[in-house]
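step=encode ok
step=design start
structure_in=
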């Protein structure tokens, strides 16, 4: 399936965008398609890339297993195959159990998830629902377990994933093969040139 808005090829991109592509490919092995589609709007491209890096550096209160599970569930709920794919890769690289993700639909009854996991998944579902269905009791229980900063971090990650997943799903951006380790290329990547150095 092709995206509803095509990726910006390096030959059509600004120098800063081409440098962004180079760094993304160096870090991830491929240029993420959402990145290349967002490049149609250079200011939002830079804002998004900067924001993602800042969020990654700021997220340190919760264990990765907690917020990655919540982010994955959010992507799965919204129906963003790109985010599910990418989230699987992140969990695999962090040494987390990706096999249990096959049971995400049955998290309430699956032995693959602890009660702590279920609490986090229920919260991700409540934040993602439209309108949201978060209760005072949910937040209080999470604060008791993770503290105020932890709940802020968890809520921020879930909300950010809602933005990512809805953006990607709306523009027809689908899985790219990150989760399987068999990453496919964005269409123009084979002729992508390295950025010019100063």
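sequence_out=
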């Amino acid at each position: 399936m092709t995206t509803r808005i095509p990726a910006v090829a390096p030959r059509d991109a600004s120098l800063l965008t081409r440098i962004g592509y180079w760094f993304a490919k160096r870090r991830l092995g491929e240029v993420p398609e959402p990145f290349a589609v967002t490049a149609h709007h250079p200011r939002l491209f830079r804002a998004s890339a900067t924001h993602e890096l800042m969020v990654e550096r700021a997220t340190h209160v919760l264990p990765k297993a907690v917020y990655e599970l919540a982010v994955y569930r959010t992507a799965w709920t919204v129906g963003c195959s790109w985010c599910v794919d990418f989230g699987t890769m992140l969990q695999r690289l962090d040494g987390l159990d990706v096999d249990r993700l096959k049971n995400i639909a049955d998290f309430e009854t699956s032995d693959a998830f602890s009660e702590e996991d279920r609490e986090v998944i229920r919260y991700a579902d409540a934040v993602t629902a439209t309108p949201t269905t978060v209760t005072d009791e949910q937040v209080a229980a999470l604060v008791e377990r993770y503290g105020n900063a932890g709940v802020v971090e968890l809520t921020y990650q879930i909300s950010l994933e809602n933005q990512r997943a809805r953006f990607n799903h709306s523009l027809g951006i689908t899985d790219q093969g990150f989760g399987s380790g068999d990453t496919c290329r964005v269409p123009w990547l084979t002729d992508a040139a390295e950025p010019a150095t100063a």
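step=design ok
step=annotate ok -> The radius of gyration is 18 Å.
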